[in-house]
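Subject: two folds for Thursday's group meeting

Dear M.,

Sorry for the delay on this. The cluster queue was jammed most of the week, so I only got both jobs back this morning. I'm pasting them in the order they finished. Each block is the input sequence followed by the predicted structure tokens. Could you check whether the formatting survives your parser before we put anything on slides? The first protein is the one we discussed after the seminar.
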Amino acid sequence: MSQLTDNRGKTQYFAALDGFRGVLALMIAVYHTMWLSNINSTALFNNGPILVDLFFVFSGFLIFTLYDGHLKTGAQGRTFIKRRFARIYPIHFVMLLVALLYALARIAAHWLGFATLTPGEILPFQPGAAETWQSFLSNLTLTQSMGLHDSLSFNMPSWTVSVEFWTYFVFLGMMLWARPKKPIHFMVIALLVALNYYILSGLKPNMDFHYDLGFWRCLGGFFTGVLVAYVYRLLLPKFKKLQIPNLTATLIEIIVLGIMVGFVIYFPGKAQFFIAPVAFIFVLGFAFDMGGVSRLMGSRPLRYLGRISYSIYMVHILVSLFFSIGAEMVLPKIFGPAWNAAQTNGDLLANGDLLLIPYLLVVVTLSHFSYKYVEMPGRKAVLTYDFSGRLRKILLRLKLRSA
């Protein structure tokens, strides 16, 4: 959520960015559908993985804007990590358990004879499977995308949660021991971001990587966001003095949006490693909420999507899986065995497109309830839990036993 409240109660809200978070979460949900559709076959969605990097940029922008100048001591650092952990972990933990139950259900279904193995299929917890007790443990400890495995596992989109959590520690170390203050400091950050993407471009064919070098991908996006936050802070006083006509502001925003969309569509492959300057322009362009596009993205329905965007991101893949299984069981009986091939004939509206409507409705509905009954209560529970006191009690017990 693109609303920030610091320790002094001062609130900053970036309505357009919040709306974009919601829209991007839905786009990623569509990208991860497991059936054919006209929408998912477009270049915008074929190159869709690059959109994930915008979330990293958003995070860097928002967190630097909120915490710059407020992370000076170890106590403040511990509070920062606790707040971030409270934000990301509760729903990650719940969805990991759901994914575990699904993995166990697959095993049970085959054992009871309700399902048969398809060619190349490997059941969870079998040799060669991605879902093992080791990968479950790494998912539990948010280390699943730190180069420990050769594939994603369980709730696969959670790889971003893994790498972003450890990026928070890099950010905290910078703020405690090398806080950037001068222009030269941010120039160094910019050079390091460029170097990071340059090295990654020599190792990967495009930006669609995660379980091995995802941490470095996150670092590039996150610290691009830090750079945006710095420039935004410099420009904000000047921007407030300007009186940009609404039409001009809207045209600027349309151009900025066009640059982002054009980059995703027309710059695949190695060109994707130039995401940093494009994302920089995009986030900075909409941080000021100055034109008609910002007003649209800041409308109440899109702000709502932004509020539940993290839940959308975390629940959608399993919903997509269940929809795919259900569709394969039911729709061939209604539309025939080729129910999902109509769009290859150029139909404007195919069965796969129609399936997106109930799918997204279910995703949004579940996300609403997971936000209300998992994210928010979980966040409150983590924030109120005395981890330090609990640790002291455990250490005291160990000391007494060894005495």
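Second protein, same layout:
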Amino acid sequence: MTGTGAADGWPTPYCGCASCSTERGAGRHRGQTALLVDGCLLLDCGPETPPAVQRAGADLRGLRHVLLTHQHPDHFSPSFLLYRSWTTEEPLEVVGPPEVVEQCRMWLAPGSHVVFRAVGPGERLTVGAYDVRVLTAHHGTPGSTVLYDVTAPTGRLLYATDTGPLPEATVEAVRGAAFDVVFLEETFGDRTDHGTDHLDLASFPEQLRRLRAVGAVTDATDVVAVHLSHHNPPTGELDRRLAAWGARTVPDGTRLSTGGAAPAPVPGARRTLVVGGARSGKSREAERLLAAEPDVTYVATSYVDHDDPEWRARVDRHRAERPDHWQTLETLDLPGLLGTDGGPLLVDCLTLWLTRVMDEHDAWDDAAWSDGAEAAVGAALDELVVAWRRTSRRVVAVTNEVGQGVVPPSAAVRRFRDLMGRLNARVAAESEDVRWCVAGRVVPLA
């Protein structure tokens, strides 16, 4: 990887945002995205690419083929052809969309050693030892930008930058590909209002889900996020989020191998508890964890109060923000769901579940509490914890931390606070992964 950044790099030299400042302080720098394969095939060549190759301890003496995706200047700097001609007359093949090829021709005299090949989406060609499939990108005028599916003697890769959500034709074209490595752009991080033909941390996992659904990405595929910009959180937080989807970042200059042993899988948690206060980011974190999964059931435990317009609007908004392929199930039967086989569950939340369990048994009333409600609520909590311990499903549950405020003035609310604290502790003890959310930041709890 000669570069893994967006056009202006990351950190951006003109910017003092928290992301840029963190990366700069850590001594990390990402230049314009490009990839050198086997020392002889280059995917994209921006103005920073040739010096970046040398900084990585390599050179371009063996370069014989260049695949260009489009004519934006961070991916396409045709001056390299002129500079190369000053040193060597070794054959070179340059492949790209027609307008890219025409721009390249202007940098060389007729009859040069360079062979140009204009290509478009859907074409398949042999480039030296490589089988190359040209794919449609969602970027600019249709056909002006392409992606590349490259099969080498040692493995197969997908180079997918720049692009917005992958066109259906592209997803279908890579059905069954089982790529060794996928380089997938993730430009805009948490900014989802950019209105550009790029991906962000909301659309990136959706593309992975689609690629997994057709067998293009498998458990053995090394997924590397590229074309990264300062709209992303700093690298540590970005890596944490990507890991939940089976993806990662690598520093510029990283050498990757394909066709050998698959990268060691990141140990995954089966049960995750996400704890936090109101508006702490806990539900958003829970949804992120399952964003790339193909079959998620969102388990809603709240009342649906049709007489409360504000609550109804809140519920509708949450539903609209979830992926379209997720199912929503409104139920209190968490033990029943946990005891059955199936896809991942997202339970939101245990706090409202406990509230409704107490409602069912009239446990807010002091007299009823002493007259059987305590035993009934305790049995319900025991049943839930046992089901959580035994479940074979991937499950993420959201819960509130309610014990850090003032002591409640009534016995009933103190009872609820105590029960909630004990339930959280018991579920956490049976979870491989517990996360604390505060002010939108996530802290793992050992």
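Two things I noticed about the second structure. The CA atoms of residues 149 and 158 lie 5 Å apart. Residues 366-390 form the longest helix (25 residues).

Cheers,
T.
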